[in-house]
Amino acid sequence: MVYQVFSIVVFGSIVNEGYVNRLDETQEHCIFNRNRNACNYGITVGVLAFLSCLLYLALDAYFPQISSVKDRKKAVLSDIGVSAFWAFLWFVGFCFLTNQWQASKEEDNPMNEGGDAARAAITFSFFSIFTWGFLTFLAFRRLRDITFQEEYNTLFPNSPSLLNEEDATDAVGTYQQPPPADAFDTETQGYQTQNY
What is the model's pTM? Predict the structure, then answer.
């Protein structure tokens, strides 16, 4: 959820305060060195990252209902690819926005309007690199578990699934072995009843 908030901060900062104009102009320009591509990149990456977050949030909610290990593996592989891709795009965005912010001239923005918004967009682009990288790491861990499940199913084809814990407890968890036949035999164990 943090990555969604970060993407909202990036594109929201640029949309709200990312365009300024000089006192003698009426047309607004991008605060990042008057480079419209910098603002467009920040907005586009922020919005698309937010939408892909929603897509994979829906996939995570649906994931326990996927019964096939191969389908689960495909879903996790796509999660790895998308997360790594967004980590890369956020890295490019951080470098691009930082470079354009450093190249900005004071005469283009004499009243220093939108400076906090520009710094917020740069900062949260930087944080997004690590959050998407962490999502990639979590997806790799999930892939490892699924690969283990696939190997387990190959070795023990008639055993219950390890990934679906409810099925495993229903199939195995309710079974108990009966006690030995002589466990309650009072004569062999020397148990005597007490009369009060």
Answer: 0.73
Residue 132, pLDDT score: 94
Q: What is the pLDDT of residues 89-102, one digit of tens each?
A: 999 999 999 999 99
Asked if residue 10 lies in contact with residue 3, where contact means CB atoms within 8 angstroms, the answer is no
Query: What residue ranges of the chain have pLDDT lower than 50?
Result: 165-173
